[in-house]
Amino acid sequence: MISNPVLRFGLAANRLHHETYGAALFQWLEQSAAGIRELGMECYTVGRTFDAIERSGLLAGYGGLVRYPFGREGGLMKLVARVTDGGNGAESFDGAIYLIDPVDPSSIFPEALALKRQCITHGRPFVSTLMGAIEWVEIERLCAGLAPDPARAPLFDFSGQTLALIAHDALKDDMVAFADQHFEVLSRFAGRVGTGTTSGRLNELAWSRGWPKDTPWVQPYLSGPLGGDAQIAELVLERRCQRVIFFEDPHVARQHEADIQLLERAVRVVTDKAACIASPAVAHKWAGAVGPLKA
Q: What is the tens place of the pLDDT at every residue in 247-290?
């Protein structure tokens, strides 16, 4: 265990992901339990998910596994409250890992939607897929100054991956600034896709940095309201896009909310093959951590 500040994460999983051995929760722990122990990461875990971990023995004897109530008793609601800054004298969470089954009705309960929204609002990771959960423990390890885990190297081999870059209107400038700051990292990907004006602005940035003028840095798709999110969702479902960085504005109502949710659901359908980042702060942390890794 390292001496950096204690990491605190909320943890939950829909029934599909903890009901049988070999489900996503157990696959995650098989690959990440050692990193969790090494970090001393505290996992505040909703009832059934906690019970499943206890039965598995994958975190046996680990004091950082903390039980929260069942979802029906408000466990997920309590996670939402702890993601926010301060209040009730309790330390805030550093993020949430919620392994979501997109066809489980509870995945769209108000507390589930609020957990994601508050993570975005406060610039904390909201991790909802198996690939994302495995990756994020490694990101925290790298940020803590630990040596890269060789077993995670395939996750960060971007030469065979495609990245989607999407931003809502109020955050398009943030996306351009992010791409400018981390241009070399993002250019490691085999391909990049984007929607509407965001892709146009990112291509202008790339060309200004010397990218060949006759080659788009980002392959443009339609704007979100016209179906671009759905087009990229299809790429995700076909395993032709592995990562989505989607700068969402949590403070405005969106008429094409269904399209946004469709893309998020697609990522969760292929839970072991895709990951999504939904805020600038988290994207910068991710890119800063993977930047020094060998391309």
A: 998 887 665 678 888 999 999 999 999 999 999 999 999 999 99
User: Alpha carbon 164 to chain centroid distance?
Assistant: 13
Instruction: Kindly list the domain boundaries of the chain, sorted by start residue.
Output: 8-143, 157-290
Contact in structure between 205 and 197 (CB atoms under 8 Å): no
The position carrying tokens 């929607």 is: 195
Q: Order of strands, edge to edge, in the sheet holding 42-45?
A: 65-67, 42-45, 8-13, 95-99, 126-127
Q: Are 65 and 106 in contact (CB under 8 A)?
A: no
Q: Write out the catalytic residue numbers.
A: 229
Given a contact cutoff of 8 angstroms between Cβ atoms, the answer to whether 98 and 115 are in contact is yes
Write down how long the chain is. Answer: 295
Tokens standing for 128?
A: 């909802």
Residue 164 phi, psi dihedral angles, 5° rounding: -100, 135
Q: Quick check: do 8-143 and 157-290 share a fold?
A: yes
CATH 3.40.50.1380 fits 8-143, yes or no: yes
Nearest-angstrom CA–CA distance, 225 and 256: 6
**What does pTM read for this prediction?**
0.95
Yes or no: say if 142 and 103 are a contact pair by the CB < 8 Å rule: no
Superfamily (CATH) of domain 157-290: Methylglyoxal synthase-like domain (3.40.50.1380)
